[in-house]
Amino acid sequence: MAGEFIFELIGADAPTIAACRQALVGFGTVRVSGPEETQLGRAPDGTIVCIRIPIADGIACFAQSRAFRPNVPVLLIGEGVDIDIATELIQCGAAEFITAGSLGQMLRPKLERALSLRRGSVLDRPELEALAEPPAPPLQANRRRCFRAMAPGAVLKARVRAGEVALVVEDISIPTDGWPGGVGAVVDDAGLRRLPISEWSGAAAIPLTFHAPGEPPVAISARLVSSRRRRAGLMTHLAFQYLHSGPGSEAILRRVWLAGQRKALA
To answer: For 189-246, where are the E strands, in sequence order?
Structure first.
């Protein structure tokens, strides 16, 4: 479902996987993988690590997850874990700790709080009402974890069967903390008809070339995130996530992004 969050689930058995998916229906998609696994597609909004016997293995997974994606909140699921260990893990950076038996009631609200979508206690206890934080407007989670910058004059080139199609770049963001970068571009109807949009929609990696004025071309491996037609100008906007791939390409994209940020602040 479009707009849902994505959560990486590590170290879970089949019943726990099923329970997590059931608890997050309509809110988040559960993706089962390992702590060091990276994908070209969208990075997770949160990581869920199961702490099971032997506990040392779960703690190692938690540490690897925190090191690999330091800006992604980590929620721990445990059963029979000593309270001192749970407290210590929270002090070491875990966003939340819940028991496997409470997944149905607690998983979603605690993930909401970890993503800054909920304030105050998630427990429905009158004793805690006096400790609740004052109401505040709901915060939007920053799913991209990055900032866009305008890139005037830049183009995104795609090789097609009949040659090449150039898209006009509107903005760019750079990969940060394991999250992919993004490029927004527009193309007219003639160019759109030459692009294999249906193939791109299911493609894991689309080879593109990013070229900004005064900089050498940069090869990027991208994924089409969205495509929408604009009413004015007969243009279609395409949004991509990308990972840079060529030697030195990260420095070039960073310069383009910084130039756009400076111009916006000038």
So the answer is: 206-211, 218-229, 235-244
